[in-house]
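Lecture notes, continued. The same structure-token format from the folding unit now serves as the input rather than the output. Read the line below as a description of shape only.
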């Protein structure tokens, strides 16, 4: 979508002006105007932490939507982890459950703005946690 590309470009421009608060503020206003246009047109996805402005520049509605999405995804992680454990106990193949879990976890990593550590009850065994999860924690310890 053209507008999403424009938002990403504005964020890169904002990063270039890290020491100019007036210019950063102007860019933030432009960014939020475009974000509002695409939200009004029915787009309600998230840009991902890599392409978002810092929270202090984002609209409350965007931050709320991001928080709600992360909450829903955390609930799904828990459900898949429970299903995974049930399948293990019953000796069933859980490859499909692991794939679904990884898809949700990768979406959470894309969105960002969370601890990157699911609740203990929402974890799979180490061998079934995805490589990007292990890479993240190996890099950030």
């Amino acid at each position: 979508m053209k507008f999403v590309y424009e938002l990403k470009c504005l964020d890169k421009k904002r990063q270039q002006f890290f020491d100019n608060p007036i210019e950063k503020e102007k860019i933030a206003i432009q960014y939020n105007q475009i974000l509002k246009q695409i939200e009004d047109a029915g787009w309600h996805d998230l840009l991902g932490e890599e392409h978002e402005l810092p929270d202090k520049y984002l609209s409350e509605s965007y931050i709320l939507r991001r928080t709600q999405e992360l909450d829903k995804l955390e609930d799904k992680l828990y459900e898949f982890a429970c299903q995974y454990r049930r399948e293990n106990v019953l000796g069933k193949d859980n490859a499909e459950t692991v794939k679904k879990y990884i898809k949700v976890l990768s979406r959470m990593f894309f969105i960002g703005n969370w601890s990157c550590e699911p609740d203990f009850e929402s974890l799979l065994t180490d061998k079934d946690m995805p490589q990007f999860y292990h890479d993240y924690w190996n890099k950030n310890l």
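Point for the exam: The two ends are 37 Å apart (CA to CA).
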